[in-house]
Amino acid sequence: MNYSIHTFDLVGSTNDVAAQMVREGAPEGTVVVARGQTAGRGRRGRSWTSPLGEGLYLSVILRPPIPQADIWQIGFMASVAVAEALEQTAGVRPRIKWPNDILICDRKVAGILIELPIVSPRVVSTRCSGGVQLIGRPVIVGIGVNVNIENFPRELQRSATSIALTRGQPVAVSDVERALLVSLDSWYSKYLEQGFEPVMRQWRNLDCTVGRKVRIDLDGRTKEGLVKQVRTASGNIVVQCSDDTTVTVSAGDILIQECLPD
């Protein structure tokens, strides 16, 4: 994949800038990078702390030829790529919390937000030989990495970390950006050539969710239980709850309730 990188000092959200570029005809491989964001966001409408010069905030435009029902696979692919890049730059092996949070020592160091910008129907008319409609449309992969942040807001101090805090010294944001884009290119190419199975295999190697006790927030309803599996065909998580019910979750938040052993 040939990257076309557009670097900004400060933006509202790199995903929003990428969406505007999509509307202007930006091709696959277009990358938006910012030193800071004033309105960075994560999954489920949460804000993403984006202090100027202390993190990596980027969005990549992809055009994967896959059915829309499989878009969730792009998030899994991106999480594997980000974890690989952070292992190189942080010097420790990150883990993935379902679906695509990247953790170091059970604290979040990076997050991924997949968005489908609104585009004209004429750009999504591709069909495969079996008649299944393929995306043929842009997918924005937003990635935020806490690189050199040392002072988090009070509400994040127990749940977030950064590469600098892990290594005990600052890291060049440009080094993290370079490693991330190389890793993303490699895993995206593998995904297109070999399908989802290699991605899911590596995702499972890095997963820290299965077998853990969690609390699930299901749009106002809260349940606790043990994560039994992440389904390969759907990416859904299966939780055996403490009230003897089993819940399958396709979208929601989970809080891991006990730490991994040192």
How would you describe what is shown here?
Helices cover 25% and strands 29% of the residues. A hairpin with a 2-residue loop joins β5 and β6. The longest helix is centred in the last third of the chain and has 22 residues. The strands form 2 sheets. A 7-stranded mixed β-sheet has the order 1-2-3-7-6-5-4, with helices on both faces. A 5-stranded antiparallel β-sheet has the order 11-10-9-8-12, with no helix packed on it. It has 5 helices and 12 strands. α2 packs across α4 and α2 crosses α5. The chain folds into 2 domains: 203 residues, Bira Bifunctional Protein, Domain 2 (BirA Bifunctional Protein, domain 2, 2-Layer Sandwich); 44 residues, SH3 type barrels (Roll). The radius of gyration is 18 Å and the shape is globular. The N and C termini lie far apart (39 Å). With 262 residues, the protein is an alpha+beta fold.
Helix content: 25-40%
Total DSSP helices:
5
Q: Would you identify the regions where 5 or more consecutive residues have pLDDT less than 50?
A: 125-129
Q: Any idea how many domains? A: 2
Order of helices and strands: EHEEHEEEEHHHEEEEE
Broad structural category: alpha+beta
CATH architecture of the largest domain: 2-Layer Sandwich
- In total, the number of strands is 12
Distance linking N and C termini:
39 Å
**What is the highest CATH level, the class of the largest domain?**
Alpha Beta
- Apparent shape: globular
Q: Strand share of the residues?
A: 25-35%
Question: CATH H level of the largest domain: which superfamily?
Answer: Bira Bifunctional Protein, Domain 2
Radius of gyration: 18 Å
Q: Quick one: biggest sheet?
A: 7 strands, mixed
* CATH fold label of the largest domain: BirA Bifunctional Protein, domain 2
Mean pLDDT score: 89
Main sheet: which strands, in order across? 1-2-3-7-6-5-4
